[in-house]
Amino acid sequence: MKIRVECYAGYRGEEEPRAFTMGERRYEVKEILDRWIAPDHRYFKVQADDGRTLVLRHDTASGEWELAGLVGAERPAAHSAARLH
């Protein structure tokens, strides 16, 4: 699933996801739990502000991002009842 990602480039210039939008809903990245590199993609395992853990994939050639997967069960956020579809 294609998503829009807001990034921050640190002192090394490598972009990291800070928030992403799916449909009309914006999710803040609370924490980057893991990251890894494949030949054509960069992957980020993140915890979103709704309590879910997701894997975001960045295509290094096109610059596009997509939701690569959900990890584990949904954990309800204390302040939001919004759900990913």
Count structural domains: 1
Secondary-structure class = mainly beta
Helix content bin: under 10%
Overall geometric form: globular
Q: The biggest beta sheet, please?
A: 6 strands, antiparallel, barrel
Describe this protein's structure:
With 85 residues, the protein is mostly beta strands. It has one domain (2-71). It is 0% helix and 60% strand. The protein is built from no helices and six strands. A six-stranded antiparallel β-barrel has the order 1-2-3-4-5-6.
Quickly describe the structure.
With 85 residues, this protein is mostly beta strands. The protein contains no helices and 6 strands.
Relevant terms:
85 residues, mainly beta, disordered C terminus, 6-stranded antiparallel beta barrel, 60% strand, 6 strands, 0% helix, globular
